[in-house]
Amino acid sequence: MNKVVWTVLIMSNLPLCAANTQFAETSASGAASGAVQSIIKQIGKPLEDHTGTGEIYSVAFSPNGKTLASGSDDGVGLWDVSDPKSPKLIEKPLKGHTDDSYSVAFSPNGKTLASGSINESIGLWDVSDPKSPKLIGEPLEDHANWIHSVAFSPDGKILASGLQGGTIYLWDVSDLKSPKLIREPLESHTYAITSVAFSPDGKTLASGSNDGSIRLWDVSDPKNSKLIGEPLRDRALSVLLVAFSPNGKTLASGSGDGSIGLWDVSDPKSPKLIVKMLEDHTGDSSSVAFSPDGKTLASGSDDGSIRLWDVSDSKKAKLIGEPLKSHTGEIRSVAFSPNGKILASGSDDGSIRLWDTSSLVVGIKSLKSMILDVVDKENVKVPSNYPPLLLKPHNN
Predict the structure, then answer these.
(1) Residue 272: beta bridge partners?
(2) pLDDT at residue 311 is higher than 90
(3) pLDDT at 287 over 50
(4) Contact 148, 194 (CB under 8 A)
(5) DSSP readout, 289-320?
(6) Taking the CB of residue 234, how many other CB atoms lie within 10 A of it?
(7) 121/145 Cα distance (integer angstroms)
(8) What confidence score (pLDDT) does residue 98 get?
């Protein structure tokens, strides 16, 4: 029985006419990368309603993807992004907890927002109705330094905070009206804690620091939390952000030397550096975030660019396309929406930008299968959101 081989041909962005249409018959990986990159575009206009000096430190999506929180030098903002093409500011700043908010994080159920501030306190907000956010009780003020990072445990019962002084606080927030410190601060780092992150199973806490190290903590029993093994180091002068992959087996780190590290933490007692990616960012790699399926890593840099990495095989991580460039200042934070179709970026230029990354959800795997498979014509389906594609048949 005759089959038909369908080869994908990707067209340039030039108008479609005989004189200026270019075709490139590519390999599977090249076609996938090119097609995906060509449709990752900024959505609408920048979100620019923060009124401070213009630094966006942190962005975070709510679990349902309809609300975006931002931490800035004028406090915390909430944005309605249910329609990404027409985002709307809900409220800014949230009243009751002001000053520079370096970090924002939603609880897993989306009903609570935590904000860590330069004023050495954490605000907890009831955002069950994002249009009417309310501060829950008084800010948590037992910290001894600025708060650089906050993170909820996967069950929402613990809040971790990383401080300028190099310590980590663990809070019992199971009763939001009466949060309590669980134990004395965790101490090991010698300089500021820049980032804290819980593993998906909630048993491990990772911390990155300006002392150039990453520490892993056993928090399976929060009252008796303890260090796991030796510090993770890759010769970086500072570690600016850490993030676990969705399956918890890989930890990504962004560093002050512009590099991005991928660590195998499947056994937290014996972590190993998988790869250190050095290329392309010319400034600090100040933010990293995994897509919800764990196959893509976004990195933001002081050079104002965002890079996307295919980490479906972490040992063979590779860049996807060209940098995303639109910001005019340093990228401080990147975050994927829960469905992976939007990437948010916050910058020192005072803006938040939304990027259409829906192609990453369906793109590379689908496109590779179209190129590599020998299929009947009726089985070939081109996703509607792909750029112009031609399928060139060859009788086999």
Answers:
(1) 264
(2) yes
(3) yes
(4) yes
(5) EE-TTSSEEEEEETTSEEEEEE-SSGGG-EE-
(6) 17
(7) 9
(8) 62
- Per residue in 251-281, pLDDT (tens digit) is 999 888 878 899 999 999 999 999 887 656 5
CATH class of 43-187+326-354: mainly beta
Distances (CA, A) of 18 to 22, 25, 144, 166, 389: 9, 17, 68, 63, 16
pTM of the model: 0.82
8-state DSSP, 222: G
Question: Which residues have a Cβ under 8 Å from the Cβ of 196 and sit 6 or more positions away?
Answer: 149, 150, 151, 160, 161, 162, 168, 205, 206, 207, 208, 242
108 near 156, Cβ under 8 Å? Answer: yes
Helix ranges (DSSP H) in 12-150:
28-38
**Rounded CA separation 146/120 (Å):** 5
> Tens of pLDDT along 96-128?
656 788 899 999 999 999 999 887 889 999 999
Q: Where are the domains of the chain?
A: 4-31+367-395, 43-187+326-354
CA distance 319 to 262: 14
Which residue, 57, 159, 49, 146, is CA-closest to 93?
49
